[in-house]
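Re-run with default settings, no changes from the original entry. Doing this only to confirm the output is reproducible before filing.
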Amino acid sequence: MIEALRNSFRLPDLRNKLLYTLLILVIYQFAAHVPVPGVNRAALQALFNSEGAGLVNVLNLLSGGAVQNFSVIANGVYPFITAQIIIQLLTPIIPQLEAIQREPGGQDRLNRYTYYLAIPMAALQAWGQINIFTSMVGGEQIVQGFGRDPLVTLSTIITMTAGTMFAIWLGDLITEQGIGQGLSVIIFAGIVAKVPHNIGRMVANSQNALFNVVAFVILTVVTILVIVIVQEGVRRIPVQYGKRVRGRKVYGGGSTHIPLRVNTAGMIPLIFAQSFMAFPAIIVSLFPPGDFGAAIQATFGSQRGFAYWSLYFILVVGFTYFYTDVMIQNQKLAENLQRQGGFIPGIRPGKRTQDYITQIVRRITLVGALFLGMVAVLPGIVQGLSGLLFPGEAATGFASNPALVISSAGLIIVVGVVIDTMRQLEAQLVMRNYDAFMR
């Protein structure tokens, strides 16, 4: 693998792609440290020091650490991801979008609509993000004058929306002229860049630093191994193509297979579930304090307790099934097979084939859903074990949790980006008659 990396740097065009990708990542990190004018540093620090920052951590993850500085790209690429999900969910529901998808070049039109939708989503997120953060720190404004001064409000929203589109543009540049899928590479770089800081914070806030460092290494290695096995796991459904005779020539025939992934949904269910779990604490923070609000904050705000992690596990499993069903319906595998003259042996083409594929997908999705659920609640499991082994450690909170140095969604992103980048490098090297990159 190391030799293959050296070979990739020996090739001028491939070396230029790698250096171009690194340059874009450096530019993004510079932009991530350019703050929005009027940011209240004290309020922002108090927000990240609080234990009720589940949604904040998700946004910070997807922005590559820009939320921690509340920079001009604090929205990150999350509005574009949200727009993609909305378009994917609406395509099978709205006949016009479904018709566009079937047209030649229809996917390009849907991608263009996704970019258009990302603009109002970015503006809406900028407005909501600042207001939610302000409410989470007891009403102290994150951006001075926001909501009171129309000029400050408008300029802040425009600046953050432009920053989001700038981040998306950087991701597209990586996709087109660099190595890897641009948006994923940007998120990956932000996660990796924060790992040393998170390890230092864990050691500084821990009474058992050596135990936590060893636990972090073991958890990371084991989790990555399981993620690779599950993410790369597929169920192959055999497909046979019929022969067609035209004159004296015979076309078609042969056999292949449909690879159905065990985890088709990726990390999207984790984003859905974690955002949903953060809403109760945010909502009760908008009302006067009381016993009910205190109970909600204790459960959802501090991210502790059996009830919180059980509900989180159920939501992740449920969202995995929901999003996988939507993805499979959008692919229209049975219809495409029938159009191309293919069929699954022993299964009648058409609706019976679609029902068969759906049944198989739901069966193997159980493994993927349980896997995502266990990865999601891993911090809670580690917290519980740490509380049993070291009762005094619970007082330091999640800052000393080795499972949160790289979050669950972060590990899935890191592993997925590394595998995808390795495959692209392998393809580039194989085209130039080098030995396979992955052995």
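The CA atoms of residues 72 and 159 lie 6 Å apart. The first helix runs from residue 2 to 10.
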